[in-house]
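Before our next group meeting I need something from you. Please put the record directly below this note.
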Amino acid sequence: MTNKEDFSTIINRYFQNDYRERGKIKWNGFFLSDHTSSLVKDDRQRNQKPQKLPKIPLNEAQSILQHSCVNYHIVTIQQNIETTDGYLIPNVTGLVNGLTELGVYINQQFIAYEDIRTVIREK
């Protein structure tokens, strides 16, 4: 055998039997600080618990939604739906895409009128 064949055999044996993949540890050095801070910020937003805002009457909520739909205002809707932890689900913010007899579409997401706790028109 030549040196080339010996070296090839040693390398193959090493990768088949001895090499251990370090997995995620290997890639940690490649994350940039802005990417890491973005991940932390995203995690905070996902785990944020919305505070209960004062409940408004349905006719007032519908009036705000109709006005915002016509004038292209951004609104934030807090729904009266709680998670299993007892916290309200995250607020929905966006443009009013449409109104129906049963609810409203915000950013293509349907929200029933009966689930609306409050509506805030953003400035």
Q: What stands out?
A: Residues 4 and 45 are 57 Å apart (CA to CA). The chain has four helices and five strands. The longest strand covers residues 92-99.
